[in-house]
Amino acid sequence: MLPDGTYDVFVVDAEPDGEPDxxxxxLAILGGEHKGEMVSMSTQGLGVDExxxxxxxxxxxVHVGQPSVTLDT
Length: 73
Fold this sequence. Notes:
Blueprint: E1 5-16, E2 22-29, E3 38-44, H1 50-53, E4 57-63, E5 66-71
Antiparallel strand pairs: 1-2, 1-4, 2-3, 4-5
């Protein structure tokens, strides 16, 4: 688990996660102490499908141990 903070990320893989508008993402961290590490997470409501999410940059925020991601669409 990553420590609380803000991380620049890149979507390496995305696939539907069983629920409507929910994706399972594989994110690569682009800088800092955790550069190159992979983070796997499920997220809902991004407004993109799995094909459109591939290769997008974004921001991962971990707050009180809970991750959330925003993609630059």
